[in-house]
Every structure is written in C-alpha cells, then in structure tokens.
From TrEMBL:
The chain crosses the membrane at residues 48-66, 73-92, 112-129. This is Uncharacterized protein. Keywords: Membrane, Transmembrane, Transmembrane helix. It comes from the Archaea.
Amino acid sequence: MPRQRHLRIITLAILLAAALSITLITLAQSQAQPRPFMTLKGEASLIDYYNVSGITALMLVIRAYLNNTPAPITVSLFAFTPTKIYTIGYYYGVGAVTINLANPLMMEVASAWNVAGLWPSLLAFIMYTSNETHTVRFMILTIPYDPGWIISKEHIAITASVNLTTVKPLPIPRNLTKSITMQTTNTKINTTDPYGYTYVGSCMGIAFHNHLQAYHTYLALAQLAGN
C-alpha cells in the first residue's frame, strides 16, 4: 500500500511538471509573438499594427518577398500634409527595411494633421531591380497611420509585407538598372515640395497594381519633391 501511494505521488508530480512546462512554453510563445491590434489586407500586401513595449517610438518595417524568398529592395517613402508632400527618405535592404518614424520631419507632418480621427497615409514606392534580366518590379503601397502616435511617441510598430511575385516585371534600359540601385542604396534625403502639392483622398493600405503607371507616378512624385 505505501508503495502504491508512493507511485501515485510520483505520477502526480510528473503530470504537474508536464502541465507547468506546457504552460510556460505557451506563455513564452505568446510573449515572443505579439498579436496585431489591427490588420489591413490587400491583393498582394499585408499591414499589421502592434503595440510593442520594447521600442521607443513609432517604427515602420517593410518586408518584400519574391517567389517566397526575401528580396533586395529599395524603398522611397513620402508623407503628406494637407498642403505639401515630403520625402522622408530612401532606404535599401535585403528582404526588409526598418524606418524610424520618430524624427523631426515626421513630427512636423503629424502636427499638420489637426483633425481628430483622421488617418493620413505614408506612401511607399517599393522597387526590386534585377541586373540579370534588366527588369524592375514596382509597387506603390499606402500605409495609414494615426498622427497622434508620432506626437505622443507611442510604442507602435507597423509591419508591411508585400508579395512582389504578383508584380509584372518591366524592362528598363541597361544603363539605368545599376544607376537606380546605386543612387537609392543607403541614402536618405529629406526635402519639402516647393510647388505646394496637395494630397487628396483616403488610402487604407491599398497597393496599386498598374505597375507601369506606378513607375511613372514615382518618377513624377520624386520630381515634385525636388529630387
């Protein structure tokens, strides 16, 4: 009888240890993978919004995939006020770029939107250039945000993922392929629009898929911004 009781105690202890282990594993996974408080889905894009205590201010991460593989991309990021367009910067990364939106220029942009409840959008031009095929894949993505997040320095991360496989490659001149990559790699340029360009409309995470038109829109927008 004492032996059976001893076995029962050992069995109970093992079951409790197993239950505790499962609980700890589940808790660790839930902490390591925070859930977004908002998600916007497009035809070839996904934008998630997270509350992240480990960052000091608003952050934007743009990820790009081609054939399920992280793709090297250049990102040209623009922001709008009711009367102007600003170049936030040019960024390059393999698979992803990380952009800190806690900067004086974005603070100026956010402060210009003094209408409660209004969400403007950042405009990201995402480009993948192939030197082998001399083609470019191009996508425009609008990324809505609350200006109050920047002003209040909220701990929020925005992640935007795009699937470039759905984008039709466009041929570009051979001498332009290398130039585009070199000019946009590791450069950040902030300028204001001297023409007072006005942005009209509401863009809730829309990716534009008329890629030739998108490419010419990017060139025109960069020219308007004074680049």
